[in-house]
Amino acid sequence: MKQIQMVDLVTQYEKIKSEVNEATQNVFQTAQFINGPEVKTFQADLEKYLAVKHVIPCANGTDALQIALMALGLNPGDEVITSDFTFAATVEVIGLLKLTPILVDVRGDNFNIDICKMEAAITPKTKAIIPVHLFGQCANMDAVMEVAKRHNLFVLEDTAQAIGAKYFHENGKTSSAGTIGHIGTTSFFPSKNLGCYGDGGAIFTNDDELAAIMRSIVNHGMGERYYYERLGVNSRLDSVQAAVLRIKLGHLDDYIVARQKAAAYYSNFFSDFDNVEPPFIANYSTHVFHQYTLKIEGLDQFALQDFIKSKGIPAMIYYPMPLHTQKAYGAENFNHEDFPVTNALCKTVISLPMHTELDEEQLSYICNAMKEFLNK
Ligand SMILES: *Cc1c(COP(=O)(O)O)cnc(C)c1O
Known about the structure:
This protein is of the alpha/beta class. It is built from 12 helices and 12 strands. A hairpin with a 5-residue loop joins strand 6 and strand 7.
């Protein structure tokens, strides 16, 4: 059996080696490393794939969030609401811009922001909401947008874990994750569902005005050449990464199917255990399984992690600590009792190996090791 990894990027590369090598060699040979034709082609391909008007490539998913927030013209002290149960970057950028992060508890089923608690957290200072499509499944965006509209708030979708997921609106329409709010952002970190071979990110919007502002921000706030209209940053996707991404975007739908197949194998197996809850599948979203995360009641997650590790199986606790307990994000401003769901999730979740290259032999081996521990 092939060694089991959380993510197997080497095997994935072997399968697309000739395409990737040709595309990247071409960049080396033309030496157009910055803003070369590959960047424009990938941008156009991704706009088409997502059915969104503007894709703005940038250096990573954290920059994408920061640039999106910078474009909104907010003032220090304005409040931005986001999820307590997410990767730190989502909250970090709010603080970096001297905005006030307001963390909200999540739902126990889909791990995404709790809409009722989100609405209850809105104050006159609230300017934006950042729902996170955690682990590959959309937050309930119709509900988010309805609340945002009523309170006149911007919505930024953190789509770093859910590129390619589809959202089914109540009115029968379908949207790609990241194209529903005012702005969507994503990361092309290697282990993300659409990952490059280094760092990369992108911002999506259907709003022409916001797109123009963000294109300026990624390039030092420049308008006309050498006229600086606003404070910006230097955040670019380089041409080598764009070439890799252009090739991998062509495989993204197959990659999603491969993840969904592995997830179906796991979920079928774990449905037999009373204390194990496989991932919830919402009727309003597909799940692209950036992570396959089980909730297991009455168990020492770390003992499980150690046990399967001793059998050569990696597993991760995403996330072991609620963000409201973190010093960097103003832990003293939050009341621990306001986050019962996140507090409990941090003690019950475990993410199993999930990637595009898992085969049945590996899946069966992982499931049997889990069974051995669960039946002890
Ligand atoms: C990965 C990730 C980011 C940050 O992306 P980077 O490219 O690593 O900067 C932001 N938000 C979420 C939810 C993520 O998973």
